[in-house]
Design a protein that fits this description.
single chain; 355 residues; alpha/beta; Leucine-rich repeat, LRR (right-handed beta-alpha superhelix); 2 domains; 8-stranded parallel sheet; 10% strand
């Protein structure tokens, strides 16, 4: 019976999780190996729940919650003289600054996530985490408990559900702040004894990972075949030129003697809503000769096994430029353009049920 849950739509799974106390979720995960080999964890918590986390550190009082648009109801105002100490204490405990709220939400989300990873990490094969950001506690859990067996990792800090929280809407348009937490996930610097190293699929959405950190993470996972980056700070020329073999890491002597680009194994590369991927200006791309019509994206040539390449919502890339480069040089089976081109006379698709 429990195995059937994995066949349910993600929205239904999330609804079920939202009503499960944290300890019940852990107990359920222990019942079947198939349940926790492919965990999808939503560590969301509403801002008005933060009061439960601030005064007392509880070990058994966590609930998996989904951010929903708050329904405001009229509240009867009490006289100022009634319960003065309670009102003062509530104001002291309840944060009002959006930055403080976001920081505390991130801490609460990662506390839940790290506890699950610390408990089940050594057996997880597929793991997805949807939250506001990652912190040192979660990164340490991933780097120590998911070093070798984990094959699929998705860290989604941009999701349709969390857009309705108490955070400024502009927050979701840009990557999360850069952080040293990624060093623990990667296993670099003083953390060389840890780090995830067996990934085949990596998905990062609204991640504040730097180009150098992203380079180290991909290098640490040589069997990576699927890399999907959306609103990712690391998707910049420094990383992309290395990925395509145009630049070598001076600290890695082995890399200099290889005939293959570091990204040669990649079959899927998605760069979505990333606006700093060009290595040079392409203002006059119509005048580029055919043999150099991909100027600014030459690094793509080194990805010889690529089957799918996406530039969705990368608005500084003209679709005509990408179409010409792929037809003339890259010849990749599937290339997603930044936006759909509509020529004059193109029919508009209409839902048949509306006709």
């Amino acid at each position: 019976m429990s195995d059937r849950i994995s066949f349910l739509p993600l929205e239904i799974v999330l609804q079920i999780l939202s009503y499960l106390p944290f300890e019940s979720l852990l107990a359920f995960g222990e019942t079947s190996c198939s349940n926790y080999q492919s965990h999808i964890l939503s560590g969301w918590i509403k801002a008005d729940q933060l009061i439960d986390f601030i005064p007392i550190e509880r070990e058994t009082d966590y609930t998996i919650s989904i951010i929903r648009r708050p329904k405001f109801k009229p509240v009867k105002q009490e006289p100022a003289s009634k319960h003065p100490m309670r009102t003062k204490d509530a104001k002291r405990r309840s944060p009002t600054d959006p930055f403080v709220i976001q920081k505390q939400i991130v801490r609460a989300q990662n506390k839940i996530f790290s506890r699950i990873v610390n408990r089940y990490g050594t057996s997880l094969v597929k793991l997805e985490f949807m939250a506001y950001d990652i912190d040192i506690e979660s990164a340490m859990a991933l780097g120590t408990r998911c070093q070798y067996l984990l094959r699929h990792l998705a860290l989604r800090f941009e999701h349709q559900h969390i857009r309705e929280g108490h955070i400024k809407p502009s927050t979701w348009r840009f990557p999360a702040p850069c952080s040293i937490a990624w060093n623990l996930l990667i296993g670099i610097g003083q953390y060389k004894h840890i780090g995830v190293s067996g990934l085949q699929t990596l998905i990062l959405e609204r991640a504040g990972i730097t180009p150098w950190q992203l380079t180290m993470l991909v290098k640490k996972n040589p069997n990576l075949t699927v890399l999907k980056l959306k609103t990712c700070h690391g998707a910049q020329p420094e990383f992309l030129k290395w990925l395509g073999g145009m630049e070598q890491d001076s600290d890695d002597p082995v890399e200099g003697v290889s005939d293959f680009a570091p990204g040669d194994r990649l079959e899927v590369l998605w760069l979505e809503n990333c606006h700093q991927i060009l290595t040079q200006s392409i203002d006059n791309h119509e005048d580029f000769p055919d043999e150099a019509c991909d100027r600014g994206l030459e690094w793509v040539r080194g990805l010889r096994n690529l089957q799918s390449l996406s530039f969705n919502k990368c608005m500084n890339l003209p679709s005509e430029y990408l179409e010409r480069a792929n037809k003339t040089i890259w010849k990749i089976p599937e290339v997603s353009l930044p936006y759909i081109r509509y020529e004059e006379g193109t029919p508009i698709e209409v839902d048949p049920t509306l006709m």
